[in-house]
Specification:
Strand content: 35-45%
Strand order of the largest sheet: 3-2-1-4
Shape: globular
Largest sheet: 4 strands, mixed
Number of helices: 1
Order of helices and strands: EEEHE
């Protein structure tokens, strides 16, 4: 299972805040059994962000390549 994180932040263009957006460390949501956890494009805001990427994005603020700024995050599932 991929690691999942919940992020808060805002959009760069209009400064509209967002809360509780789910991001996935991997580009898919298939677990070890080959089954989906019902996480898909309707549930995942962004794919491919590791915890290190999120921390770096928080430190960089508006200087990231993303259209949004991450202000905080929480691990909601961690792969073991």
């Amino acid at each position: 299972m991929p690691n999942l994180f919940e992020i808060d932040g805002y959009w760069k263009d209009d400064k509209q805040p967002f809360e509780g957006y789910i991001v996935s460390e991997m580009d898919d949501d298939i677990n070890d059994d080959g089954e989906s956890d019902n996480l898909d494009d309707e549930n995942i805001f962004f794919y491919g962000l590791t915890e290190a990427n999120i921390i770096e994005a928080i430190e960089l603020g508006e200087e990231t390549i993303y259209d949004f700024v991450i202000t905080s995050y929480e691990v909601i599932r961690w792969e073991v």
